[in-house]
Inverse folding.
């Protein structure tokens, strides 16, 4: 998929969530979300980080939090601010309030290395093996 197409798809989705956002704000928010997706931030999201991400997106899109009307009534703007993490695990964009960056944990813990078995037919390819 071309990056322009991905931005347009994301932009259309964000227009439904942020109806008061300008065209420029929607484009900035769409590009930001795509960048965060490439950073694999979704792998480690919890309620606090979801709230922080939503507040960050509102700022990037130029939408006042009071203009945001979430579908879930438990997620009003005051609740978002109360729950939101005081750090982020994704890259900072213009318009976001400065917060500390907390690196995510590694994908998989690295255990002790098991030596290769030369008789293992499923082992790594070695010179002369196909």
């Amino acid at each position: 998929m071309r990056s322009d197409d991905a931005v347009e798809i994301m932009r259309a989705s964000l227009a439904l969530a942020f109806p008061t956002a300008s065209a420029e704000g929607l484009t900035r928010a769409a590009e930001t979300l795509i960048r965060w997706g490439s950073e694999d931030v979704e792998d480690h999201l919890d309620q606090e980080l979801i709230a922080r991400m939503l507040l960050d997106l509102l700022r990037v899109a130029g939408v006042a939090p009071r203009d945001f009307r979430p579908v879930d009534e438990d997620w009003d703007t005051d609740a978002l601010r109360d729950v939101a993490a005081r750090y982020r695990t994704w890259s900072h964009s213009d318009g976001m309030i400065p917060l500390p960056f907390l690196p995510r944990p590694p994908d998989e813990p690295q255990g002790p290395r098991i030596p290769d078995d030369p008789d293992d037919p499923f082992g790594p390819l070695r010179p002369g093996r196909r």
User: Anything to note?
Assistant: Residues 107-114, 120-130 have pLDDT under 50 and may be disordered.
